[in-house]
Automatic annotation (TrEMBL):
Pfam families: TACO1_YebC_N, Transcrip_reg. The lineage of its organism: Eukaryota, Fungi, Dikarya, Basidiomycota, Agaricomycotina. This is Transcriptional regulatory protein. One of its GO terms (cellular component) is mitochondrion. Residues 109-274 form the TACO1/YebC-like second and third domain. It is found in: Mitochondrion. Residues 32-102 form the TACO1/YebC-like N-terminal domain. Belongs to the TACO1 family.
Amino acid sequence: MHIASLRSSFRISPFVARRCLFTQPPTQAGHNKWSKIKDKKAAHDAQKSVLYARMNNEIIVAAKKGGSADPEKNVLLANALKKAKEQGVPKENIAKSLARCIGGERSGERFTYEALAFNSVGIIIECITNNANRTIHNVREVLTKHSAHMTPVNYLFHRHGCVTVSLEQGLDFDSPTVSKFIDLASEQGAIDFEEARTSSEEHQQYLFYCPPQQLASFEEALSNFGSGIEVESAEIAYIPSDRTQGLESEVEQQVKELVQDLEEIDDTLRVWTTLDFTST
């Protein structure tokens, strides 16, 4: 396939078309000031939850790639911690991520669990543990508490390499620089890309996907681009085939609380769901 045609396919990709905006019809509860404040707070809290989960993962990945949970001996980890602080991640969240890094250095085997919540939301929980019985017990306990259960949901996701990049402030997405970057990504085997759900006008972020086995070379090629585009993280990600939408706000909040409780389990590395919390 020619690069031009692949780049064209990006422009009409369903990932790109599915932006981080969601329109809901007005509710029957009225249009009072408190209702608007409540909705804004819920959206803000959801955005923070996505950010905290991503930064937790970036800290753990940086510790593994740099070979140490000591930021003085690991430049990648030091940079991840600096970034987390700059983006307002609470100190206790950062401390917990570091504790998981230290635990991961001692011992641990990787396990992946699948679950379904409210008959429509797929969940994948990645864990590292030195006691599988303890971990699966803790995961099941949380799922049961929230009326969810373990069942195969892997078919609801695609497993891709995912590289998160950010544009320097003032760099427009339609600029020649970004166009060249997209061409480079396509040449290196990119499958698709989309705007990150944590993206904002001040901090534009995009997710570029590639086959899992090509992640290392893909990340290296994008990292060497420079010119106002920075690679922030790289990981193997579970991307929903279709994000679950149309749930009642109460159900979305319950799923959010389930995810938070799963992330509180010491052995949890990452929780993936088919629910787009930015729709709240």
